[in-house]
Amino acid sequence: MARWRSFFGTLLCCNPAPLWWGIAALACALALASLVLTHLLRLAPCHLCILQRFLFLVLAVFASTAALSSARPRLLYRFTAVGTILTALFGLGVAGYQSLLQWRPESFTCGGAELSPLERFVEWLASLSETLFLPTGFCSDPGLVLFGLTLANWAFLAYAGIAAVGFWAFVRIQAPLTR
Q1: What pLDDT, on a 0 to 100 scale, did the predictor assign at position 176?
Q2: Torsion on CA atoms 99, 102, 107, 110, rounded to nearest 10
Q3: In CATH, what number is assigned to the domain containing residue 52?
Q4: Of the four listed, 25, 31, 51, 115, which is most buried by Cβ atoms within 10 Å?
Q5: Any idea of the CA torsion for 154, 155, 159, 164, to the nearest 10 degrees?
Q6: Which of 151, 124, 140, 137 is nearest to 36 (CA)?
Q7: Is position 4 within any domain?
């Protein structure tokens, strides 16, 4: 047992690439799961759902680049690691806002006569690929509920975990570099 702990401790302490690859794989899996669930269960994703799907794809790109650049120039690694963390935090905010809309739809609004900049961005994404990014639902509709949590709640937890692991990987690998 101690041998495995030592192996993984050394691996994760000195080389953050496995963590970044894990984040990238998780983000891809979550984006793919949202597509599959939408198709199989005939779910109607809203603008915020589509934005979260897009952010998972952006996370995958940032985390993959962080994994590839972890042994290369420090500036690229820092940029992509911080980009991953900030994207996860933005996704956390979007998923949190959608969770609030679903819990208290009478207290918060989504949509209206004029589209917000984020909704216009999602509409632009839909013009590029309707299969991936076409919003057809309402943000306050909880849709699928798994173990008492909506998909927005699960996305909130995923973004929080990704942000925490990304921050830990970034700080953990920066410590030996500054000595």
Answers
A1: 43
A2: 90
A3: 1.20.1550.10
A4: 51
A5: 0
A6: 151
A7: no
**Beta-carbon count within 10 A of 28 CB:** 17
6 within a domain of the structure (yes/no): no
CB 121 within 8 A of CB 51: yes
> Which structural domain, as residue segments, surrounds residue 101?
16-177
- pLDDT tens digits, one per residue of 116-138: 788 888 888 888 888 888 887 77
Other beta carbons within 10 angstroms of residue 164's beta carbon come to 12
| Tally of domains in the chain | 1
Residue 142 lies inside a defined structural domain of this protein: yes
Q: Give the closest residue to 71 by CA, choosing from 15, 12, 22.
A: 15
Length of the chain: 179
Q: Do the domain assignments include residue 43?
A: yes
